[in-house]
């Protein structure tokens, strides 16, 4: 159990370095890397919620930390000019940037609250994921370019 806690702490510490580097980039690849971090965290949480993996408080905390920290820097990845080109971001981001940033802040705040007071079982993880997922889905629906 102590080894799991150490591994989770190392993963979270490493995450901060990755986000700090990506936060300065502002490219499609940086945005994609950040979303993959969120996807990995959500996948770990989903496996616990579905009973595919045993409940692990350290994994839960590290996953919500990843989501919170990523959401903090994600809006900064949309630098001027990234709304053009073959890997362009949706122009809707600039049309309603206040809403875009508010959604990211809400996700970060809600995930941080789950780090401070994490669910204590798989059912709680599932409920938390449902709440966070609604925020993620709403942002994707409004701001993500749909690809075939």
Automatic annotation (TrEMBL):
> Hey, what's the signal peptide range on this chain?
1-22
Residues that hold heme c according to the record? 136, 139-140
* Gene Ontology cellular component annotations, sorted alphabetically: periplasmic space
TM spans, by residue?
none
Any Pfam family matching the protein? Cytochrom_C_2
Concerning PTM, the database record says: Binds 1 heme group per subunit.
**Which terms are listed as keywords in the entry?**
Electron transport, Heme, Iron, Metal-binding, Signal, Transport
Domain of life the protein comes from = Bacteria
Keyword tRNA processing present in the record's keywords: the answer is no
Any one Gene Ontology molecular-function term assigned to this protein's record? iron ion binding
Q: Which GO BP terms apply? A: electron transport chain
**Protein's name according to its UniProt entry:** Cytochrome-c-556 signal peptide protein
Q: Which organism is it from?
A: Rhizobium grahamii CCGE 502
| Upper lineage | Bacteria, Pseudomonadati, Pseudomonadota, Alphaproteobacteria, Hyphomicrobiales
